[in-house]
Amino acid sequence: MSAPVLHTDDTSDVELEANIERATLASRVLAHTSVAERAALLRAIAARLDDAGAELVDLAVEESALTPARLRGELVRTTFQLRFFADLVLEGSFLRATVDHADPAWPPAPRPDLRRMMQPLGPVVVFAGSNFPFAFSVAGGDTASALAAGCPVLLKVHPGHPRLSIATGALVRLGAQDAGLPADVLQLIHGEVAGRAAVLHPVVRAAAFTGSLTGGRALFDLASSRPDPIPFYGELGSLNPVFVTPAAAAAQLPEIAAGFRDSFTLGTGQFCTKPGLLVLPHDADLDVVKAGLAGAGATTMLSGRIRDGYANRLAELLASPDVTPAVLGSESGPRDVTPSLLVTTVASALRDQHNLLAECFGPVSVIALYRDEIELLELAAQLEGQLTATVFGSEQDPLTGQLVSALAEHAGRVIIGAWPTGVAVSWAMQHGGPYPATTAVTFTSVGAAGIERFLRPVAYQSVPDGLLPAALQERNPLGIPRLVDGRPEPGQAITEEDLNA
Amino acid sequence: MSAPVLHTDDTSDVELEANIERATLASRVLAHTSVAERAALLRAIAARLDDAGAELVDLAVEESALTPARLRGELVRTTFQLRFFADLVLEGSFLRATVDHADPAWPPAPRPDLRRMMQPLGPVVVFAGSNFPFAFSVAGGDTASALAAGCPVLLKVHPGHPRLSIATGALVRLGAQDAGLPADVLQLIHGEVAGRAAVLHPVVRAAAFTGSLTGGRALFDLASSRPDPIPFYGELGSLNPVFVTPAAAAAQLPEIAAGFRDSFTLGTGQFCTKPGLLVLPHDADLDVVKAGLAGAGATTMLSGRIRDGYANRLAELLASPDVTPAVLGSESGPRDVTPSLLVTTVASALRDQHNLLAECFGPVSVIALYRDEIELLELAAQLEGQLTATVFGSEQDPLTGQLVSALAEHAGRVIIGAWPTGVAVSWAMQHGGPYPATTAVTFTSVGAAGIERFLRPVAYQSVPDGLLPAALQERNPLGIPRLVDGRPEPGQAITEEDLNA
């Protein structure tokens, strides 16, 4: 078998078949790793990335035009994420090990011994995002959670940062070897044709994607059209509306405006959680909101293609007779832009949702002015699926509670008094939401539960202890938390040394 | 608004719109019920079914031609299932409440207060199965788990038992009213056109289906084709192969044969877990396997349509030059049949998987004879997705372990030395599997985890305690098990009285 592809040319059919063959072998090895081995894999990858941090950040700056400070932070987040999943795997709750002992009195017929746990789905394809060259790319959250689950990854490289992807991929593969596992737990593929072919390949068991609505929907349709449809976890985009109550606007507009400007222009507005809509009372002082924006310096977008998409979408918004620019940004050079701020009314936005309430990826946000609380709640009720929705209000004001309730029906994350552009990697994070925010409303792509996307449950009935996976054996050799006959059996502190003994 | 439909005519577009409007209202009420209220709902429904048990069983016998004893057992299972979900809801783990307190030292940036829990998806459509007029129909597992999750149900009646469906539906609605909730938490719809329209309706948030591969795939395609695709939980069918090792065949063939005959003819072979393939060594004594089958009396299939489907599929199998009948069943009357048993080789089955390894719903099974262990393992490796796969072997024989490992990659439930036709409602049950067994490999349609199909995660960031759902409030007023800063916080025994206080 030939060596893995290390160029950036599009992956050919023949190369993809070789990738798939290697992924199949890696899958067999990975599926039979212990939780300790999988934790060691993730930590070894993190260590490799740490060691090469400076060079990686340099490459990332060059290819993405994001700032060194931002990229250093993102790399910290990425290695933290790998170690977070290492800890999570070792703790073992993710296996959801459940033991039902045989019960002759169970209705309506005697219950046999039944034991259920999560097992890896098999090889998966991950489509890297453009806007987080570390955290949503080669060694990002999808890869970390897939490897934690025991699934090898075919990583479709984002063309925005090909050299960084190859460098990161090589380090992930070295990390795997450091941990005594096949390098082929991760392989890179290049080009849209190969990406589509991977989604359709019989061996591939799931796909994860971060990117545009158009691209993601096309791949979702492919995954669903297979003779054997596979789960497609697409994170497609979001408007991330921010609702400001009349009381909050009266009390703290300057502070809200400053946070808003920082949040929607962060990373040149290229965040899936960028607040793309600020909903204000009709009498809010817009001069306060736009203060200083007109003088903002130009920043560089991720690629010329993304800049073009931004310019086109911005033109669509500006073409609406219901939209007026409060600040009209400029373009300088092929990828450099300054931010724009547009104004419309909630009534207009409700009439023309298809245009005025759709995402525009880049440094622009729309202010929608509401006449009264009824109109504000009407907008909250009519929203499409969102990754996030934010309220500035107070606990004492009943309107705030009404907004929180309404928004929880449409968004994966509801925020009060803060900005959506930070996405912490932690146990309670939810980065998902109803369509079009994602194609898989019951899952998250960030945080501990992200691992669930790559696992499937298997029950063992009347299987003797010696033939059961360790997680389900009677004496609980892994010391993991389990549910036994409907009651929690707490995990025990078992060290890695115990497990390797 | 007009009264709910109580006839068996196909539901018209206008009626469906009225159904949807009522489901929307019921959804708002149900989403805001406490866990205690939802438990009371499920128990009230179970009580109504218990009270009417004799009449329901009579109706079911009349419409389904299943035996009274079987249907009485199935009704016990159904009311048990409702109460099982009541207990589960009250216990609260299903909410997966997770609390991450703010942490200024969290990498790479301070973590805000984040709290995540499961919330109902909204109105769902459930397609009843034909073969379990109680347990997979109007008040069956899909309905019980959807209501437990807080989702109102539009129940597409199976035409095989319309009067039983109407009677059961009326009792479910009365039960809801007993519990102080809207009757419209469940509404019946009739006809394929209305079923398809419900899957496509913007208000409907998910669909669950038990039935044929053809019908289920068509509905899956509809659900995936929506402008906003929704989860489609289809349980479509399974061959449920049974592998007998050479050692097991030598030691216990008569016992295996007796269990096999009982299992594949149970309920006239109309179980989704019917063992449709028995894999035996080439020298197994087939006279032992078929003993007594030729003299079996005729039993009645669920409907003329299902009988016709059975006859056609059986003819396809018999048309194969590689299949010989060991026992050829007969048909008497429009729905009465006696069992058939066919014989082929594993080599043939591997060559013609599309015919020989596809489900035939009804009282027939295929014996596939293997030449050697390599062929046996080859078959295990090449299987399509299955609900169940069974091994007769011993822990001491390495072949048994190899089969268990291989089968766990293709089946939702792996069984040793028992038959797949019992599906206990319990915590560890898995009734699912890779396609074509189901369209949603990460879920189960039976057992505690079935509730996960109807829930979606929502995170609350920096939301004051007074505006949080009870499950996430700081003092844990529901006393449910939670994960707090990555550590389990055990649930407390809180009584329903406490909750209602």
Structure characterization notes:
The structure is a homodimer of 501-residue chains. Chain A is an alpha/beta fold and 501 residues long. In chain A, 39% of the residues lie in helices and 18% in strands. Chain A contains 16 helices and 20 strands. In chain A, the strands form 4 sheets. Chain A has a 7-stranded mixed sheet, sandwiched between helices. Chain A has a 5-stranded mixed sheet with strand order 18-2-1-19-20, with no helix packed on it. Chain A has a 5-stranded parallel sheet with strand order 5-4-3-6-7, sandwiched between helices. In chain A, helix 2 runs antiparallel to helix 4 and helix 3 packs across helix 4. The longest helix of chain A is centred in the first third of the chain and has 24 residues. Chain A starts with 12 loop residues before the first helix and ends with a helix. In chain A, 58% of the residues are buried. At the A-B interface, helix 4, strand 1, strand 2, helix 8 and helix 15 of A face helix 4, strand 1, strand 2, helix 8 and helix 15 of B.
